[in-house]
TrEMBL record:
Pfam families: 2OG-FeII_Oxy_4. This is 2OG-Fe(II) oxygenase family protein. It comes from the Bacteria. Residues 125-217 form the Prolyl 3,4-dihydroxylase TPA1/OFD1 N-terminal domain.
Length: 225
């Protein structure tokens, strides 16, 4: 993998990509994820929708206060890997997504792109960046996770570059060396560790930024076979 990131267009059949976008768009139950004093935190998005404006503003203040000087993120996610690997009785279409990214054709393609035959499985989640969501600079290198590379399958048609939600990559300095606007049905693949971020989704964005994303990992898969 000579380039810092590789983008492969048309990773899925066109109808499959459209169906997957529609499936994610119709989901009501997501985790609203953020960093709480250095630890990952999830709250039910459906519960959040029932909060008062004052309660929502309080959470926003907490998230933005930490974001001002520390690592922070704020977006919606569905932990597909956990559902399928550890059970949970979720929609069978989640199992299809899990099986897709762990199929031999997909894993073989990823090994070829990354140039690493040690990749043995992929974890996976659905993500949704609504207006005001973001992911600050980080490198995905977590002790014990055995992450070789990351992948992002973009699933929002006709994303406007002015809406934000751009996947930025950084060198040693403070300036981005590459930025990828979400491109429908394209997969972005990049090695770990590598500094990157997802820029703030603007208040005037007309759509949410949907994707299937995860890490390509080596070693034995945790949980159920």
């Amino acid at each position: 993998m000579k380039a810092s990131v590789v983008q492969v267009p048309n990773i899925l059949q066109s109808q499959s990509a459209s169906d997957l976008f529609s499936f994610l768009r119709e989901q009501k139950e997501w985790n609203l994820s953020f960093n709480k004093l250095g630890a990952h935190a999830d709250i039910s998005f459906s519960d959040y929708c029932g909060w008062s404006n004052e309660q929502k503003d309080t959470l926003n203040d907490i998230v933005w206060s930490q974001a001002g000087g520390e690592f922070q993120y704020f977006y919606k996610a569905i932990p597909i890997f956990d559902f399928c690997n550890f059970g949970g009785g979720q929609d069978k279409r989640f199992l299809s997504i899990f099986q897709l990214v762990n199929s031999q054709p997909f894993l073989s393609l990823m090994r070829s792109i990354v140039g690493d035959q040690s990749i043995s499985f992929a974890d996976v989640q659905a993500t949704c960046f609504d207006r005001g969501h973001f992911l600050k600079v980080h490198d995905d290198d977590v002790l014990g996770k055995n992450r070789v590379a990351a992948y992002v399958i973009n699933l929002t048609p006709n994303w406007d570059l002015d809406w934000g939600g751009v996947l930025h990559f950084y060198g040693r300095g403070k300036f981005a060396v590459k930025g990828l606007v979400p491109t429908f049905n394209a997969v972005n693949v990049f090695k770990v560790p590598q500094r990157h971020s997802v820029s703030y989704v603007t208040p005037f964005a007309r759509e949410s930024r949907y994707s299937i994303t995860g890490w390509l990992r080596r070693g034995g898969r945790p949980g159920k076979p």
